[in-house]
Each structure stands twice: as structure tokens, then as C-alpha cells.
Amino acid sequence: MSFVTRKKKIEMFDYVNYTLLAVISLICVFPFLYVFSVSFTDPESYVPLEFYIFPEKWSLSAYKYILSTDSFLNALKSTAFITIVGTVLNLVVSFSLAYALTKKQMPGRGLMLIGVIFTLVFSAGIVPSYLLIKQLGMLNSYSALIWPALTNAWSLLVIKSFMESLPAELEDAAKIDGCSDVGVFLRIVIPLSLPAIAAFTLFFAVSHWNTYFNALIYISDSKKWTLQVLIKTLVIDSDTIGVGQSGGDDRLVPQETIRMASIMLAMGPILIVYPFLQKHFAKGVMLGSVKG
């Protein structure tokens, strides 16, 4: 096979591959365009069961209405609190414990590693977890969504592997200068781990922001619902926040526009934050990988 023929086949493969990927991307993007368009569609021009790529007439009526409801604001506050507090605690626990596990001289290190790996393979299940949360008195509280998720085996092992790849000479030099283990961790390890911290901040924040199943099981007070639970209830039962009542401009707000606006508000913060952490996210994917 000549070089020209091989080159043409490669170009043809690239053309077909790019075309296929473009079609798949469009299929994935269209639902988001529909949600975005319906949420900004004016109530007077909205036509049910009609596909929108761009609104015929733009309006913020749905957003004004849903942001004026107590149920959505309560869910937003609950989710923001869980995300901020949970992410901070996740970072503190995960990085401090992972650093401790890198020290071979630490008593009980092997047993702790076995325990971490054991949880990676086996899980107690829903019923024992619920009974434990109930026995600890954390039902119907934010603690049930934060404390059981302080860290996880995958995060610990990846962060541990990343820290083990840091130059040991830096720690030795710091200890020679009189720095304690805590000082080495705060002054040497943490500054060198900023890409890992940025990546896992995104991982933990997205996980807490999307909290649904645990909130559905452990939280019975509607005032403490997370956004995901509220949206699920809203999509199934449109009367959750009084959909269909008149908004601030004395016009009826269609149920569908309210639902789509709530979905956009739930996705918005993550979509806004992600581009700023994308560079660190790409690095975070390679954390703990084997270097050749």
C-alpha cells in the first residue's frame, strides 16, 4: 500500500470520526438547548409540546417566579450549605488522612490501608446505613449528608499516590530546619498539592451539589430538601411550589417553564465554576498515575 493511499484512508477515517462525534455532540446538546430555551420563553408565546431551539420571545418570568418561592430558596440555601461545609471538610479529612497514610512508620498504617481498600470493594448497604444514621440521631439533619461522606477510598488512594510522588528531599530538608510533621504538611505538602486540591474541590463540590439519594432517604422535612430532591418532586408534582399561579407581572407562568428554569438554576453554579477549574481538572485526572 502506497503512502498516498494510506494517507487518504487516514483522512477518510478522520472525516467519518469527526462527523460521527459532531452528530453525537449535537444529540447531547439539544436537550440542554431545549431546557434553556423553554426556561427563557415568554409565558404568552409558550406553546406546549413544541420544540424550541431559541425562544421566540425572551422573558425572565419563570426565573422571577421560582426565585420568589420559599421552597426553592430553602432548597438553594440547604444545598449551598451542604456543598460549602461538606467540600471543606472533605478536603481537610482526605488530604490529612492521605498524608498520614504515606508515612510507613505510623502505627497501624497497614491496618488502616486494609480498612480503606475493604470499603472500596464492600459496602454495608442501604438498610444498615439508614439504621446507623438513625441510631446516631442524625436523621432529618444536614449531618446525615455531610459526616458519612467525609471521604472515600478512591479519593484517599489517589491523593496518597500523588503525595508519595512528591520529592522526599523537601520534607527531609524542612525537618532538618526544625519543621514539625504538621509544619511540613502545611508549608510543604499543601502548596505542592494545589493542583490536586483544585481537582478534588471540583469532585467533592459536584458530589455534594448533586446530593439526591441520601437526601431523599434521610431528610423528611421539606424545608431542608436539597435542590435535586425539590426538582425531582417538582417535575413529578407541579404543585410543589405552586406552579401555574400568577407571577410578578400578573400573568400565568406555565408549568413547563417553571420546571426548566429550576433545572437551569440547579445546573448553573457548576457550569459557571467548571471553566475556571478545567485546567486543574485535566491535571487531576492524571493524579497518581504511573510515570514512565
Automatic annotation (TrEMBL):
Primary localization class, coarse: membrane
Any Pfam family matching the protein: BPD_transp_1
Membrane topology designation: Multi-pass membrane protein
Protein name according to UniProt: Aldouronate transport system permease protein
Keywords (A to Z) from UniProt: Cell membrane, Membrane, Transmembrane, Transmembrane helix, Transport
Transmembrane segments: 15-36, 80-101, 113-133, 145-163, 184-206, 258-277
Localization annotation: Cell membrane
Family note: Belongs to the binding-protein-dependent transport system permease family.
ABC transmembrane type-1 domain location: 76-276
Species the sequence originates in: Paenibacillus qinlingensis
Taxonomic superkingdom: Bacteria
Gene3D superfamilies the UniProt entry points to: MetI-like
